[in-house]
Amino acid sequence: MKIIITDSYAASCREAANLLLSVVKSNPHACLGLATGGTAQGVYPHLVEAYKQQLVSFKEVRTVNLDEYIGLKPDHPQSYRHYMDTYFFDHVDINPLNTYIPSGSQLVQPEITNFSRILEIWPRDVQLLGVGVNGHIGFNEPGEVLQAGVHVATLDEATIKANARFFASEAEVPKTAITMGVGNILQAGKIVLLATGSQKAAVLQKLLTSDEVTTQVPCTLLKLHRDVTVILDRELARQVG
Ligand code: F6R
Question: Which atom of ligand 1 sits closest to the CA of residue 41?
Fold first, then answer.
């Protein structure tokens, strides 16, 4: 596992963006696995900026997102489709047909089939990840067992509390989401995990300072992948120890 410690969250976002950009520059037809959430948000302006400066084109790039809340329509301000359009897709030359975000408002079973099929036919060169306060990746929440493939996850109490900051109240946070499974995540060619904030220190410690792999801290399964880069800022690294 490669660990990059930066001076600040802003610098971490630049590093993560540069990794994604280097994948696209070396293969203009690359497929990017993307993440939403507060941490990933700072990465997208760098991709947009690189496009505006004509350093890169996303014309032939495909993207697949990790997850989507069940019950939110694509135009809901907190849907992950809306997030991706707002922070990235609307500002670059990507073909919207080449951007896949699972739908949270279609019939669930057919959508699981669609999502699984997309993951088969669009193999990801790289997968960007954030990490939950409980160690979740995508919406693979801690538990006795994890699922390898696409599934509907029931959000953990900790996740609902953490994500309430994006909604008017905690009650409005959807209770379920459609997500890649851990097997799907581990199939990406490269994985880039970006983390910031003291509330992530405990799970980062399990990932970076122990050899243990446990379904109770899903990010520890990343130890099973051979090309993972973890990017964190100095402040978080200090807390991880
Ligand atoms: C988002 C996702 C989640 C987030 C995680 C961290 O698509 O799959 O795993 O990466 O919940 O979220 P933030 O960055 O808001 O702390």
Answer: 14
Q: Look up 235 and say whether it is catalytic.
A: no
pLDDT reported for residue 209: 97
User: CATH class for domain 2-240?
Assistant: alpha beta
Which tokens hold the place of 137?
């990746």
The single residue of 15, 67, 68, 233 carrying the catalytic annotation is 67
pLDDT in tens, 5-32: 999 999 999 999 999 999 999 999 999 9
Cβ 99 vs Cβ 80: under 8 Å = no
Q: Find out whether 131 and 203 touch, Cβ atoms under 8 Å.
A: yes
- What local confidence, expressed as pLDDT, does residue 207 receive? 98
CA 42 to the chain's CA centroid: 13
Amino acid at 232: L
Residues with a CB atom less than 6 Å from ligand 1: 35-39, 66-67, 130-132, 136-139
Helix (H) or strand (E) holding 201: helix 201-208
